[in-house]
Amino acid sequence: MKPITTPNEPYRSLSPPVMRGSTVVFDNFQDFANRKTRQPDGYSYGITGTPTARELERRIAALEHGKHCVVTPSGQAALMGCVMGFVRGGDHLLVSAACYGALKTYARNYLARMGVDVEFYRPDIGADIEPLIKPNTRMICMESPGTVTMEMLDVPAIAAVARRHGVLTMVDNTWASPLGFRPLEHGVDFCVEAATKFLGGHSDLLVGAISMNDRGHYEVLRETQSIMGLQVSPDDAFLVMRGMETLEVRLAAQSDATLDIARWLAGQALVRELLYPPLESDPGHALWKRDMRTNGCLFSMILQPASERAHHAFFDALAHFSIGASWGGTHSLAAYYPAPLQADRLYARTDQPVIRLSIGLENRELLREDLRGALEAYGKHA
C-alpha cells in the first residue's frame, strides 16, 4: 500500500508536533536523485533528522545566541561528535584534566591509538595555555567549572589565544546552561550542552547539543551526525522542548537554593572544604563572578578525614537525596568519588574522597535536615 499523508485540517497547538519516521519519501525521481542537496538543513533519510529535532535545534541555538545547532543522543555523543568532526590522526588535541571522564577516556584510549597527540592540561588555566599550543594543535576541549572538583577556566582568554593560532575551541557548558553563560559570545567555536541535565530537567531523557556560529562547521557536524548515526528520537526532542519551557524558573529556584545550602554546609564542622565557585572562598570565584550569571545546582565537598565506613554511613543516612551520578533535574542527588579516583587524576585538586551534590526543587529545609542527619551519621565514624 502506498503511504499517503493527508493534509491536516487547520489546527494550532501550544506544543510542537512529534514527527516520527525512519524513511523519507519523495514526490518524484528527480527529488530522490538530488536528495543529498537537501543537507545540512533538510531531510533525505531517517538518520538526517526530523522536523521535531530541527525545531529543538532552532530553540537551543536561539538560547545560546548561536546561528546553528546539531542535537545528538546524549551529552557524551555531542562531545565525541564535535571532536570526531574535526580531529584526525596527526593532530594535537588539548583536553582539560577536569573534562567529563568519558571524554578523557575516549581521548586517551581511542583517539591516541588512532594517531592523535592527546595532551591534558591544568584545569584552572587561562591565557597561559599558549605555550602548550603546537603547530598541529587542532582543538582545545574545555569544561568550566570542571567535572567533580569544579575548577574554573578562563574561557575567554583561552578562546582568544586559540583564535590567534587558528585552533578550534569547544566548551562543555552544562553546569551553567545557556542562561548562566554563553560561550559563543566569548569567542568559543562550539558550545556543548548535555540537554539531559538542565534543558530536559526531569531526569527522563538523554540528549546532547552542539551550538555554533560558523556555517562551515555546521555542515561538517551535520555530516558527522549522519555518518556516526547520532540522531535523536523525536520523542526525546519533544521532552527537551517541554523542559525548556520551565528552564528559567527551575534554574532560578535551584540556583538560589544551591547557594543557600552550600553556605550552610561551609559552616559545618565536619565539612573540610566546599568546591563551588560561587562561594567567595573558592579559588575560581573571581572568574565565576566575572563570567557567569547563575549559581548552578551542582557542587562538591570534602569532609574531615574519616574511614570509608563513615562515607557509607553518610550516604545510607540520606532520606531525601537519592544516590546517583547525574544531576540537573528536579530531584536532589548525591554521588561519591573515592580517594583513589582523585589521586589518579592529573592535576588533582585533592587526594581526598569527594561528595557531589545536585540540588533539586524539594523544600530546602528538608534537604538541609537530610544533610544534617547524614553528617551526624558520618561523625559517629570519624
Automatic annotation (TrEMBL):
Residue positions where N6-(pyridoxal phosphate)lysine is found in the record: 197
Single Gene Ontology MF annotation: pyridoxal phosphate binding
Annotated metabolic or biological route of this protein: Amino-acid biosynthesis; L-methionine biosynthesis via de novo pathway; L-homocysteine from L-cystathionine: step 1/1
Top-level taxon: Bacteria
Cofactor: pyridoxal 5'-phosphate
Keyword Lyase tagged: yes
Catalytic activity field: L,L-cystathionine + H2O = L-homocysteine + pyruvate + NH4(+); an S-substituted L-cysteine + H2O = a thiol + pyruvate + NH4(+)
Transmembrane annotation, as ranges: none
Keyword Transmembrane included in the entry's annotation: no
GO biological process: L-cysteine catabolic process to pyruvate; transsulfuration
Keyword field: Lyase, Pyridoxal phosphate
Family matches, as InterPro entries: Cys/Met-Metab_PyrdxlP-dep_enz, Cys_b_lyase_bac, Cys_met_metab_PP, PyrdxlP-dep_Trfase, PyrdxlP-dep_Trfase_major, PyrdxlP-dep_Trfase_small
Family membership: Belongs to the trans-sulfuration enzymes family.
Protein name listed in UniProt: Cystathionine beta-lyase
Organism per entry: Achromobacter aloeverae
Lineage: Bacteria, Pseudomonadati, Pseudomonadota, Betaproteobacteria, Burkholderiales
Protein encoded by which gene: metC
